[in-house]
Amino acid sequence: MRTIFKAEFEIDVCESADEFYEKYNNSSYNIILMDISIRGDKHGLELTKEIKLLPLHAQTPIICLTAHAKKKTRKEAIESGSDLFITKPVSIQVLKEAVAFLVNKQKINES
């Protein structure tokens, strides 16, 4: 992610829900790329649901980026609050376009 987006964004990478809470509580983000498979007691969809319930962060766009390509997983991701569901492997171009779309949409919604 750092390599793909280093020219456009400042990047934080979190390996677990605990690490995410430490960073997220002290920062705001333009967008979050969330994998379902993260270390710790929670998976990415549980974390996404929690983020979307926080009034301060409810509007932060979240892309579920995962190797879990089942229809059921897609449904669960959308129900958790993910704005987009993208399965790996994904082309860099598709990922960049998805991020640009959601960031621009967020800017329009804020104005």
Overall description:
- Helix 3 (44-53) runs parallel beside helix 4.
- 23% of the residues are buried.
- The mean pLDDT is 91.
- With 111 residues, the protein is mostly helical.
- Strands 1-2-3 form a three-stranded parallel beta sheet, sandwiched between helices.
- The protein is built from five helices and three strands, in the order ααβαβαβα.
- It is globular, with a radius of gyration of 13 Å.
- Helix 3 links the parallel strand 1 and strand 2 (62-66).
- The longest helix has 19 residues, at 92-110.
Helix content: 40-55%
Give the overall silhouette.
Answer: globular
Low-confidence stretches: none
Q: Could you give a short account of the major beta sheet?
A: 3 strands, parallel
Q: What average pLDDT do the residues reach?
A: 91
Total strands: 3
Class inferred from helices and paired strands: mainly alpha
Concise account of the structure shown:
This protein is mostly helical and 111 residues long. The chain has helices at 2-5, 17-24, 44-53, 71-80, 92-110, and strands at residues 32-34, 62-66, 84-87.
SSE diagram, text form:
Blueprint: H1 2-5, H2 17-24, E1 32-34, H3 44-53, E2 62-66, H4 71-80, E3 84-87, H5 92-110
Helix pairs in contact: 3-4
List keywords for this structure.
about 110 residues; mainly alpha; three-stranded parallel β-sheet; 3 strands
